[in-house]
Amino acid sequence: MSYTHEDLLRLVHATRAVSIWDHDKGPIFWYAQNLPGPFYVNTEKVIGTQLAEKLVREITAIVAGTVDGQARAEQLNHLILDAFKHTPDWQRIVVTLAERARASFPAHSYQLVSGGERRDWLFSIPFAHICDVPHLFLFKDKTHFCAQNISAGQSALHVSDLINNAASFFDRWKPALDGMGISCAGNLSVALRGTEGLKRLKDIGSPTLSLVTIDAEFFRHLHAGEMISQATAEEISVFLSSQRDWALRYLMPHPSLFHVRECDSKSFERLLHFLRTDPWHLHAVYPDSFAALKKEAESRARKAA
Q1: For 78-98, how does the pLDDT look when each residue is reduced to its tens digit (9 = 90+)?
Q2: Nearest 5°: phi and psi at 242?
Q3: 119 and 170 in a common domain
Q4: Angle between helices 121-131 and 49-65 (to 10 degrees)
Q5: What is the pLDDT of residues 141-171, one digit of tens each?
Q6: How far apart are CA 42 and CA 15, in angstroms?
């Protein structure tokens, strides 16, 4: 049985596949663009946080320790499908993906299912399995493997965990498919976050389907379902409308929320870049607080050097 939209919202919230910060205590989340935000998407957690973490570690070990493409693929298939068959909620997610895909991506429109290293495989491998379609592994080292013969002119449906800015698809997976002469029938994902990736895919005419869209409406539904407070929904609405307005209203009046001294090294690297570049021109509104934050961060950087 597939998930309803309400079921999916509750699953995403319950598993913390979308984590929301505590704006009374912090810390904030840091995104890859060296920008802060009030929520973070870890789509793989919908299968269960501990299971997802375990599988990602083991996937990483297999890829790092196995050079041969066939051996890699066999180990990955065994690892993921063995866990998949023992996890009903995961099965239900993939069944939902398959049911939603049928209307947008008719079976005759693709002969392969592609998935990119690493988290895509948590969904692309079982999707290909239950749909009885060959799975095409796309590796970051620019190699690929499919257990069945593939040929130029075929088409693949690309299945992923998350579409954000679609950087991995355009930088890695599409060039790999193009290099094999394989066209992309479309993109299917568990979650869509933001509009940048969706726009890029639409610009090339690639049909795109996601089970959940992480937008203002998503958080309004969480509030309506009594999963988050009205204050939280309003705060995230501000962020999605204007990241700078969010920072001015919720961050800068409370500089301790940056956790300059306590944040982990990766977060600190992003924080330091953010303070040095000041992309949202926060210094112009909060000169004293901003200068103090930057001074504290530079002090930590010098001590670590």
Answers
A1: 999 999 999 999 999 999 999
A2: -155, 110
A3: yes
A4: 90
A5: 999 999 999 999 999 999 999 999 999 999 9
A6: 10
- Domain extent at residue 29: 5-41+218-304
This model's pTM is above 0.70: yes
pLDDT of 1 above 90: no
**57 to each of 187, 192, 214, 268, how far by Cα in Å?**
25, 24, 26, 24
pLDDT for 230 beyond 90 = yes
Residues 103, 153 within the same domain: yes
Return d(Cα 18, Cα 235) in angstroms, integer: 15
Strands 144-146 and 135-138: antiparallel
Tokens of 47: 């299968």
Long-range (24+ apart) CB contacts under 8 A made by 4-10 are 6/221, 6/225, 8/96, 8/211, 8/212, 9/212, 9/218, 9/221, 9/222, 9/225, 9/227, 10/225, 10/227
